[in-house]
Amino acid sequence: MTSLSLSSSSPVTVVVRYFASARAAAGTEEEKVELAGGATVADAVQALRELHPGQLSRVLDAASFLVNEVAVRDRGRALSDGSHLDVLPPFAGG
Prior knowledge:
By secondary structure, this protein is an alpha/beta fold. It is 27% helix and 28% strand. It has three helices and six strands. Strands 1-3-2-6-4-5 form a six-stranded mixed β-sheet. Strand 4 and strand 5 form a beta hairpin. The radius of gyration is 12 Å and the shape is globular. The termini are far apart. 26% of the residues are buried. Mean pLDDT is 90; it is low at 2-7.
């Protein structure tokens, strides 16, 4: 498990799942990230940038996110312990 403390409050563990180019950039399909209690999607994205500098940061700029399989429109949404955060890069299709 990767740990990045954002404050001194009780931590939450979030399961981050990467898809397509996000998976390639992170070098893993899934990981657990420990964040401070009250952490938001925006906080989690910042933590991921710090954990995986380089290519993943560019993917995160264009990515969409799901929390517990629901699309996130507000990155200020708080994450609870055990939440799943899916990182979905833009997909081409037709």
